[in-house]
Amino acid sequence: MNISIPSILLGLGGKCLLNWALVILQRHDICKSLLGVFSVSLAVVDTILTLFFTALYLHADGFVFLLGLKLTRYHVCLLVQILGEVYNALQWPVAVAAGCDHFFTVARRLHAIPGRTRFIVCLLVTGVLWYVTVLYVFLLSDFRPVMEDVSHAEIYQCWIVHTTQILQIAMVLLLSLGCAVLHAGFSTRFLKNPPLRDQVTEQSRARSRRDAVHRAVFTFLNTWAPFLCFLALLLLAPVGIPAYLGLNSAWLGFLNSFLIAVVLCAVGPARQITQGLSAVPPDSFCEWRFPFILSGEDRT
């Protein structure tokens, strides 16, 4: 897809505004999780690169020197393609790392780590993700920038690839969420036949878990249903998201809520969730403290 350089710069500028708006909106919780720290780093990287691309394009001399390299306004296309490839390569590692972070939080494996230490660990992991991904793009991937001979009228047009990782991650998480819901819904049908008292207890626990899963799904959909519809339209429509815009704070906020819902449904202890005792990762968009009516087994 060919996009003009001014349109690319406008898109990057709008993305920077969106990133910082969401960072400010989540300022109280954003440094308490890996995904939040990564969102701040993404906003900083986007801002620096957008300002650099704009200065390079608008520079009066038509070129600048950076680290001994002479970069002209025609290199903007190359740099944007590299940026898009880095963002594409970051999607899955960020999702997996954030999922592990949420899993250990819900499972209370990280409750003993002080807040400052946790922030430093998240900062180091974020730096490693950026560093390793950039090395992968330049040294190991099969990325080849598209640099074609074009007419003078098309010299300010850039060939931009679409991102497909967003839809892939969303589909995997939707399948995981669906499996968790089905497992909770049919768990009472696969109970063994223990003594009557134990059977009542098992059924009570199964219902408690089923209610917790249903409430988690409802809480997630109550906030993010419009965004899911938008992703469904992207899946059906022939248009796509340019790679340099795919990784943004709005997507990371959605991914954060999605991962929390999946982790709570899959591994969250039902009794602790229903009593509001389970450690839930920070989320500025969804309220995960569920006002459940406890079952008789939970009250005892």
Automatic annotation (TrEMBL):
Domain G-protein coupled receptors family 1 profile: 14-264
Name of the molecule in the record: Putative G-protein coupled receptor 160
Subcellular localization(s) per the UniProt record: Membrane
Lineage: Eukaryota, Metazoa, Chordata, Craniata, Vertebrata
Main localization, broad class: membrane
One Gene Ontology CC term in the entry: receptor complex
Record's keyword terms, sorted: Membrane, Receptor, Transmembrane, Transmembrane helix
InterPro entries found in the cross-reference section: GPCR_Rhodpsn_7TM, GPR160
Transmembrane segments: 6-25, 37-60, 119-139, 166-191, 212-237, 249-268
